[in-house]
Amino acid sequence: MTPNHDFAAHSKTLVHRVNQYLDRLLSQTSASDQLQSAMRYAALGGGKRIRPLLVYAAGLLSKAPMSALDAPAAAVELVHCYSLVHDDLPAMDDDDLRRGQPTLHKAFDEATAILAGDALLALAFQCLADAAPEYRDAQAITASIQLLAHASGGDGMVGGQMLDIDMEGSYPEKESVEQMFRLKTGALIHAAVMLGIHASDMSSDQQMIEQLSQFGDAIGLCFQVQDDILDVTGDTDKLGKPQGSDEEKDKPNYALRYGLDVARERADGLFSAAIQNLTHYGDQAEPLRWMASYITRRDY
Q1: Choices 1.10.600.10, 1.10.3660.10, 1.10.510.10, 1.20.140.10: CATH for 7-297
Q2: What tens digit of pLDDT does each residue of 114-123 get?
Q3: How far is CA 50 from CA 29, 81, 247, in A?
């Protein structure tokens, strides 16, 4: 595919590609039938695959070989799937529906869901480590593992989830909510963009690193603002999860706390900021532009 090709059409092929890669990974585990079935249910039961697509889109811009992008694309999705499993648990959001299907702890049981989430997280890092031959050198694979670990843990997604819980029932300043969003959701989206660069020979290009890092920051925050808008305006059948759950649980939803107009204006501003960082790259950045537009304009 040439970089300025219609990425909307190509994205379907890439989703199929990462799904096949995930299927192979999960088939190779020696976990018990119960655990493996639960892992497959969580990882292969639908999903938009936005994070893997960001890995591929950034990789296309940085001219990474496609074979080097499959492992980081799968790894970031495995971390995302684990987070959804744990997010849905009774001790967390206590949700019954995910991706249009019963949540994992409903389809199986709570203990299996906890262990399946743990196993998916471990498999993400095993996937990256085993992909070392596809990377240009050991330093690149180490950087990728460090990047994903940082984005997944207390300084990233898990830390953001803790802030989200702490903010329930409160009315924090917008800056505090946005910082929570940057950790809870944005860190993994930012990591997906940067993983695409680490798989290429461009990871020493400081201009590209800085501009795509800023792109990832903006679009990661935009994703969660748009998610909050959809929680207010969306449809459960389209969303694949209960609409209005944030209001029911008194979560710090951006649209509920500050109004739909403010939320939409913020999402549009973040989209513009993200796109501005791609100006230097012309048509080469079209896949990332398409991803930014999709994240901002999606209705599910």
Answers
A1: 1.10.600.10
A2: 999 999 999 9
A3: 25, 12, 25
